[in-house]
Amino acid sequence: MAVKENKIVTSKYTLASFLPLNLYRQFSKYSNVFFFVTLMLLLIPAVSPFPPYAYLTAFLIVVGISIFKDGIEDLIRHKQDKHANERIIHKIMEVTNDITEHYRELDICNAAGTNFAATSSYVEDLRVGNVIILRENEEVPSDIVLLNAKVFDGKHLKCRSFCFIQTSSLDGETNLKKKQSNVNALIDPCVGTRPSSDYEMCECDKRIISNFKELRSLRRRNRFQRHKREDKI
């Protein structure tokens, strides 16, 4: 089973580990240990003349309520994780054959004769090297590198080498921060395209994505060759 590299997990327990781990946490508290030791002493008739039933009932109620509260809180965290991990994002795919019904066509073809398509995916299924589309006011699903940005001037989509993001969920600041694309700065921006869909691509996008994938392939080959040389040494 493949590991989901971008999966968010904030919950503390699973269904199998909840009871043993939570009991361990309960008895990690000094107060619970004290009351448990006292209860054990009350169970010895020679030590205590009082019946331990009332004390046992109170102890079980206190620990039971604490376990129930932890279970409810962790269940809420599981639901929040599921909601965050199953948010829909759109990845750019480069396909050489016919685009299947699972893909949404972005552009008919580029200069190399290949097609670009966008496919819907969960946030947790993102992998290093994936190219994704983010629209205005969408939440950034992971650590990303800005490749290109577009602005709509009322008639056309124009490329630009920067965008503005808000990081209030990280540091509480609501002011917009400017992020620059070093990749886009090396390419002459296009004049602008009239958008016909939500995922309109221009020649800038094609060149940037192609250069990005070629750079990743080159680095992967260099890393592989370096490992081979180290193995020989």
From TrEMBL:
P-type ATPase N-terminal domain boundaries: 5-55
Keywords linked to the UniProt accession: Membrane, Transmembrane, Transmembrane helix
Keyword Transmembrane helix belongs to the record: yes
A GO molecular function held by the record: ATPase-coupled intramembrane lipid transporter activity
One GO process term, biological-process aspect: phospholipid translocation
Keyword NADP: no
Membrane-crossing residue ranges in chain numbering: 30-47
Recorded GO CC terms: plasma membrane
InterPro entries membership: ATPase_P-typ_TM_dom_sf, ATPase_P-typ_transduc_dom_A_sf, P-type_ATPase_N
Pfam family membership, one: PhoLip_ATPase_N
Protein name: P-type ATPase
